[in-house]
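Open question from group meeting: does this chain pack into something compact, or does most of it stay loose? Before anyone orders reagents, we agreed to write out a predicted structure and look at it together. Recording both the input and the output here so the notebook holds the full record.
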Amino acid sequence: MKKPHIDIVKYRAVWFAISLALTIPGLIGMAACLVVFHAPLKLGIDFTGGSILQYRFQDDVTLQQVRDVLEVAGFTGSQVQEAQMLGQRVIVMRTKALDDEAQKRKLDRSLREKLGSFSILSVDKVSATVGPELLTNGLIALFLAFALMVVYISYRFKADYAWCAIAALIHDTIVLCGIWAILGLIKGTETDSLFIPAVLTVIGFSVHDTIVVFDRIRENSKYVGSKVKDPATGSESRKSFGDVANASVNQTLARSIYTSVTVVITLATLYFLGGVTTKDFVLAMLIGVISGTYSSIFCASCLLVWWRERQGHKRARVAA
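Structure tokens returned:
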């Protein structure tokens, strides 16, 4: 095996500290969302129900002006975005459900008085009954994916590989959901039905990268206990599991980074040049891919080494 270029395993305490620095604020953010929104994330109208209005104003109004009118009209917490349709600027408003036509006419009258005339492009109402079904199916899909991954990795490798991979996946999920919760508190970013597919896609990407690293560790595990000579001092020692894991991570390091960079470039292009309806989905993918790459390289392998060393110390104490 080639000599490792970066001693990743040696500084595992640093990587674990970085992971804690990423996950703890996210957990605090989700707890704050529970207090403010009564849910770990700020749920969009796909889960809570509401109305989506797309208006084209004749005057050049700002998003803040539209928000102010909605606040006065009693639609507190509404989300206002800008979109382009057929080369024209469109204001997209996501509000609580407009229960009757009189309520909508009152809102239109307030907008017309404050911001001038406009054209109504579409008015859609989303039923709140969709939310529980989407949430239930999403959670079932998430737990089913975790269970199947444990079974497959345990069969393909060993049980400790599987649990370390799942720990890395939980890390990525908490990082993504935590950042999303903080964005919901700060910027009002809502969680829609596309967020669940984004989480599942991130899990698939992350476990794929982790399995590549673990497969190289499994292939190189035959070198555990082999002799190695220090070129500087000439002294001989035997390779530990940490040495083999460190070398294996370095052998796959360039491949993992190159793959992730190509995905990040594609997602960044979609985020800045794509439509407004997919921005949140692409942003969730960006956060998840970056977190997944980090956890595959710096968390999963280091966690496996820590566990193997812990088990080795236990066996040594029992033998003594």
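Observations to bring back to the group:
The CA atoms of residues 80 and 240 lie 57 Å apart.
The mean pLDDT is 85.
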